[in-house]
Each structure stands twice: as structure tokens, then as C-alpha cells.
Amino acid sequence: MSPSVDPLSSDYLADPYPFLANLRGEKPVEHLPAIDMWIVTRYEDARQVFRDNKTFSAANVQAPLLPLCDEAMGILKGRFKLVPVMSNLDQPAHSRIRRKLARAFSARRIKLLTPVIEKRCRGLVETFRHQGRFDIARELCYPLPAITIFTMFGFPDDDMDQIKEWCADKLVVNWGRPTQEHQIRAARTMVLFWEYCVDFVAKRRAAPMDDMTSDLIRDEDETQPLTDQEIASILFGLSFAGHETTTNQMTNFLRNLLENNLWKNLREDRSNMQSFIDESLRYDSSVIAWRRITTTEVTIDGVTLPKGAKIMIAIGAANRDPEHFPQPDHFDPARKNATDHLSFGTGIHLCLGRPLAHIEMAAMANVLLDCFADLQLVADQELHFPPNISFRGPETLMVQSVQDNNTN
Ligand code: HEM
User: Fold this and answer.
1) How far apart are CA 308 and CA 95, in angstroms?
2) Do the Cβ atoms of 314 and 289 come closer than 8 Å?
3) Which position among 21, 180, 254, 309 has the lowest Cβ density within 10 Å, counted as fewest Cβ atoms?
């Protein structure tokens, strides 16, 4: 059955887990002609691919999944000057940038953000809590991580909707199968977004402020300071990494809680918050797959891949490998090894934003648990997932408040 697996088909997008379980059981390393990639589905193999950064280069992780048409390429040519800066950079260049970005992502800056996140979250909840029934994905999970990361960069709040729209185009181009018309439109918006980042860096270079962009600009104490092109590339990449992932994980987390009737359970004992979040990351990761490309011929699980083979690390399959996680299809917040999940990757590219993502998810859940004594999924709703191979979360999630805790 495996040659027929197309990670962009509607059946797979609606529920990839049965497809992934079949592959993992029958052909754990398999070529998928639909996207011309080798899918790796076992936990140990996936972990090995992430950790062996010499054999498995990260150069392709942000590249368009399929070649763009000439017209789209023409639009990008000469104007779109993005350079590899983090997730798609190999050693030794990667370490230089990661060291600097880790400093800008300091514990101080994250700590400063925590009360801002909680306040923004409460403000957002106030706008819809009295409706009784609402789309929690759109009303809360969509704006909150964007506001957070853009506040961190220093981007004005008013630009949020525009940037979110630009990012949606990037998602389809880099991880989906857009039509030619869509590729052309997306190429135009990617140029606009790139120019926005370049202008923003220039503004902060002229007048630095107390934000992450200015921290990156001030980093002149080293022999190789970041160039403005690199800083603009960081903003371009992080604008996406910092919210698309977290928006989806928040929605998945709420869905997991409500489908398993765990709202009251968590409300009564919030000391387990961390375990609930870890299990949601394992069970229902918002990054279901990530990419690599081989630098040499290599054998994985008995299958030999040539140099230049494109790999789809099926994080969603690895996180449900029964050899590592007993009863993997069961959402179990008491699971002892949930933190072994690969949802943030592992090795030198391990997600830099994971502390922030955890803080955002906990803040969101705490505010909702304060406000709603009970919350339930609206019955019989059809969930829709954006057509791409990596980022997974329902676009809408209708919930209803059974009992509003008006005292909070
Ligand atoms: C639940 C939310 C998130 C998930 C599931 C997630 C997942 C990932 C994954 C799978 C990688 C690739 C790891 C690898 O190649 O080994 C990654 C890298 C990265 N993530 Fe996240 N991420 C999340 C949130 C964030 C946030 C909020 C930020 C920033 C604000 C962020 C910034 C980054 C950066 C900078 C990298 C590249 C690190 C490097 O190459 O050294 N992520 N993330």
C-alpha cells in the first residue's frame, strides 16, 4: 500500500496516523513518489537522522517542497535575498548564529514576556467569553503566539494580520503543493514580507529599542557580527517558526483535553499542567514531519539511500512508535516518558523556542481554566487541516462553555 501514500491527500491530512502506523509496521523507510521523499517512521531511526548532522544535512528544511514555476522564480529573483540562518544551516556556520540568537532569546527576555502573554490572553478571552460558543482556534490560538513573537521582535501590533497572511503563503509554498497561480501570488507576498523585514532592521539600526531585533543589532562584540541581511533573514524565519507551530499546538492541546474529557481533571489539579502539555506534544504534535537531505550514501534500517536523498522525518510516527511509547494511540498525561517526544527535533537544531512555547501553552490553558468551569467541543464539527506535509492543527475548533466561571 505504501506507494499510494500521499501526505498531501485529503485522507492523510484528515488523519495521518493510520497511514503512518502502516508504514512504520511494514516499510519503516520507504520512498514516497508523490513527493519524491524517503519517509522514516521508527522512533530510533528518526532520532538518528536528527542527531547525525553530518550524514543528514538540514539544507532543505525551508526549501519549496516542489520546484516553483518560472514566473514565480522570476518574481523572487534579485529581490528575495533571504540567506540560511538557523534551521537550514549546517555546521560550522550554524553554531555562530545559534549562539547569538540564543543570547537574544535570553531567559530575561522570555521572563519579561510572561506577564505580557497572560495579560494579552485574558484580554482576548474577554472579547468572546460571553458568547457561549466560539471558535477557540481563531479567537485565541491564532492571535496569541503571533502577538507574543512580534512583541519580542518589536513589530507593531497593527501589522499582525498582514504578517499572518504573508506567512500562510509561505506555508503552502515551502511545505505544500500550490497551484501555479498560487505560487505566483505567494512569490509576490514573500517579497513583500522580506522587504518588510529588511526595512524593520534598518529602522532599528537607526534607532535601537528594547527588543530582540535591537539586541541582535547591538551584537557587535564579536569578530563576526550579524549582518543586516542575516538579521532580516532571522526575523523572516522566526516570524513563521514562532507562531504557526505554537498556534497549532495550542489548538491540538485543547482538542486533546476536550476529546478525553480532561478539562475538570486539569482544573482541579493544575500541578500536572506540564505533563499534559508534554503528552499533547507527543500525541498530537503541531510539527508532524521535518526534512533532511543525505550528504552521502547511507543505510537506514536495511534500506540504502543515495547521496542527495530527500528525507521526511515523520515525527508524528516516531512519537507513536509502540517500541518506545506503550499504547501510543492513547492520550495519557501520566505517561512517564512523554518528554522523549521528537516534536522539537533533537541534536544541534533542537527547537530554540521550546521554553517560550511551553510558557505560552501553560498561560493560555491557565487563563481558560480560570474563566471556564467546563468547556466542551461542539458536536459533529468537521475539522479542516491546511494542506502541507509538516504543520498540523485544525483551522477552526468550535467549543462551548457549559458553565462560565464569571467570578474570575
Ligand atoms: C509547539 C511549538 C513548536 C514546535 C512543535 C517547534 C518545532 C520545531 C522543530 C521540529 C524544529 C527543527 C528541529 C531540528 O531540525 O532538529 C524547530 C526548530 C526551531 N524552532 Fe521551533 N517549534 C515550536 C515553537 C517555536 C517557537 C515559539 C520559536 C521561536 C519563537 C521557535 C524557534 C525555532 C528555531 C529558531 C529553530 C531552529 C533551531 C536551530 O536550527 O538551531 N520554535 N522547532
Assistant:
1) 23
2) yes
3) 180
Mean pLDDT (the chain, rounded): 94
Our count of domains for the chain comes to: 1
Summarize pLDDT for 258-275 with one digit per residue, the tens: 999 999 999 999 999 999
Predicted TM-score of the model (pTM):
0.96
- Ligand 1 centroid–CA 249 distance in Å is 12
Assess whether pLDDT exceeds 80 at residue 366.
yes
Residue numbers of the domain that contains 102:
2-404
Mean pLDDT on 379-399: 97
- How many angstroms is it from 297 CA to the middle of ligand 1? 28
- Residues 6 or more apart from 161 whose CB is under 8 A from it? none
> Ligand 1 pocket test: which of 344, 350, 360, 391 has the largest number of ligand atoms within 8 Å of its C-beta?
344
Query: For ligand 1, what atom is nearest to the CA of residue 348?
Result: 41
Encode 86-122: b = buried (16+ Cβ within 10 Å), e = exposed.
bbbbbeeebebbbebbeebbeeebeeebeeebbebbb
> Which residues line ligand 1 at a C-beta cut-off of 6 Å?
50, 58, 86-87, 98, 149, 238, 241-242, 245-246, 249, 285-287, 290, 343-347, 349-353, 356-357
Whichever domain contains 232, its CATH number is: 1.10.630.10
